[in-house]
Amino acid sequence: MTVKTKHIRIAEYNYPLPDERIARFPLAKRDESKLLLYKNGVINESQFKHLPDFLPEGSLMVFNNTRVIQARMLFHKTTGAKIELFCLEPISPHDYALVFQETERCSWLCLVGNSKKWKEGTLEKEIMSGEKRTIIRAEKKDSYGESHLIEFSWDNPDFTFAEILDVAGILPIPPYLNRETEENDLKTYQTVYSKIKGSVAAPTAGLHFTDEVLKDLDEKGFGREEVTLHVGAGTFKPIKSETIEEHEMHTEFISVNRSAIEKIKAKAGNIIAVGTTSVRTLESLYYIGVILSKNPEAEGEELTVSQWMPYEEENNTLSVNDALQHILNYLDRHKADKLLTATRIIIAPGYNFKIVRGIITNFHQPQSTLLLLISAFVKGNWKPIYEYALTHDFRFLSYGDSSLLL
User: Domains in the chain, start-ordered, CATH in brackets?
Assistant: First the structure.
């Protein structure tokens, strides 16, 4: 199975996306977006606010509660050159919760804009928050291909790094919107249920939910659970190789509470994932269980789901129930209440879904890994869905409309 999937030609996942179909801004009311409905090959449409009317009875909805951070910081050298630092992933401390609590220094893997103008030296920027003032400094340590290890330090312990980003950072809206971040994006480019800081891009399927829709879901008896996957900049990375074999999936950090794993285990077969990030988290849980079934002592990076692991036949024999139980046993042994790990999973045609039975998702870019995931879920039937959306005035990408795929 691996060989067949690896040889998928990305050119076969192209479609014409006119510029005017890309939604540059969200609707004034989130839940008035259009909702495409796909079930057993049949396509219909409605409005997102009616979503609860179309969900299978007894469904458990799983949301990604990650929160987008203001990950872009602009510095100016004494020469006047503008340098942009885009925080991708914390290195020291490596834990997101800890790095945001730091009060003196921390280091991140960053993309550096205009790096040719910053060969050496320290960048400095003065920031104010109310009466508080500090100088934040950035120093380049090492380079890893396109990314650089940047150490940040500041001279006022009253500032946490979370506050520094809130004051000095810019929200990184997707590059395909072709515009600068606006004040309103600070609110509209977050889901109403976002909690855990760490993403550099929103889990955009969740942008359609309002408190009213969530209340309607509760009143109709649908379960709700949350997981955390911090979306990295790699989510926008195009597949540049002819086949997907050469495309390297980025690492994404996931965190799932024990209580959520128990609920997912109890509701296996009735799981609706809100967004592709929730899909990747849920499906990764199965393979983490497989890793633990083979090596109960696995720790740290050993628990990371590798890109092609799901396509090896020997990794698909365990039941979902047993896989999730192995994770619960692991948490018991470590007296832990949450699973913290990472995934590099790629979901493409040939993938066998283990946990997810329905997906709420937006319309994705041509030739993207997200479109491959959708194709895998609808058994290759993505073209009629996208043709319907294109011919029925649906809006595309992050601020666009959504679909319910069953």
Answer: 2-67+187-405 (3.40.1780.10), 71-170 (no CATH)
Query: What is the 8-class DSSP label of residue 304?
Result: S
Distinct helix (H) and strand (E) counts, the chain: 10, 18
Q: Which two tokens stand for residue 14?
A: 């192209």
User: Is-contact 364 371, C-beta < 8 A?
Assistant: yes
Q: Per-residue DSSP letters for 329-358?
A: HHHHHTT-SEEEEEE-----TT---SSEEE
Q: What is the DSSP string of 76-105?
A: E-TT--EEEEEEEEEEES-SHHHHTT-SSE
Are 79 and 120 within 8 A, CB to CB? no
Beta 147-154 vs 132-144: how paired, if at all?
antiparallel
The pTM score is 0.94
187 vs 201: CA distance, rounded Å? 13
Per-position pLDDT tens, the chain of length 406: 566 899 999 999 999 999 999 999 999 999 999 999 999 999 999 999 999 999 999 999 999 999 999 999 999 998 889 999 999 999 999 999 999 999 999 999 999 999 899 988 899 999 999 999 999 999 999 988 888 999 999 999 999 999 999 999 999 998 889 999 999 999 999 999 999 999 999 999 999 999 999 999 999 999 999 999 999 877 667 788 999 999 988 889 999 999 999 999 999 999 999 999 999 999 999 999 999 999 999 998 999 999 999 999 999 999 999 999 999 999 999 999 999 999 999 999 999 999 999 999 999 999 999 999 999 999 999 999 999 999 999 999 999 999 999 9
